[in-house]
Description:
300 residues, alpha/beta, Metallo-beta-lactamase, Chain A, 7-stranded mixed β-sheet, 10 helices, 14 strands, globular
Amino acid sequence: MVTKNLLLGTAAAWLTIPALAQDFAAARIETHRLTPNLFMLELIGEGAGNIALSTGADGAVLVDTQFAPLNAKILAAVKAAGGSDVKYVINTHWHGDHTGGNEPLGKAGAVIIAHDNVLTRMSSEQFMAAFDQRVPPAPAVARPVVTFPSRTTFHLNGEVVQVVHVLNAHTDGDSIVHFTNANVIHTGDTYMKDVYPFIDVSSGGSIDGFIASADAVLSRANATTKIIPGHGALASKADLQRFHDMLVSVRGKIQALIDQGMSENEVVAAKPTAEFDAAWGQGFMNPENFTRFSYQSLKK
């Protein structure tokens, strides 16, 4: 089982509501223009992550909102990019580093959109086993008011925005957001560039879901697609393909050890990720943790 001190520091800052107590004063936002009216807002510093911003006549559209203390910096970045008031928010999943800024935007009148399971999880106390931590319900104004079971499409700012639920990857409420005209896809935390992903098993996540999600994005992408990961630098289809291939290899190795009857600790000791650790194991999710969560999701 995962103990309370398995994941520390930056990981907790990324994912949990108590991270709102963190000091975000030094954090800054770098704006990357992807098309004339579509941007990636990259948070540098505490809780580092990525927001997509669409600007235009229909108002500003944000994909994810980071943490509430960053709201003023996010709104300043929206204004600097030529955006007006935030009218729509699309959440890729329920974790606090992607929904923590919903409350001030909801109070200002933004329509919040997400998969059905995001509303379910934000409406009741959650337990994140990875951190041995209970997360209280979000305030009503921070919760999605428009939800969908599998997919939905919006026509905003001259874009066709397809929001597609992918099954049980990072959580059970993940969505990818495809700006089809711009050829840009925001993956949420179903993809974190150049690091092992966090499989939130207690929220229904699984390594099989990560592989399926990568397949779903790859099927939509081409050589010029810009992929916004939940965390990390702007990526390409080739980057995501490497991630997918690593996952498939690790999954196969862990499943083979499970089939031999090995316990979780025995699988960890066998180091099934060893060939990938130098390239992928330098993020907050170390090889042991990634192996444990992969094992737990496969045993389910």
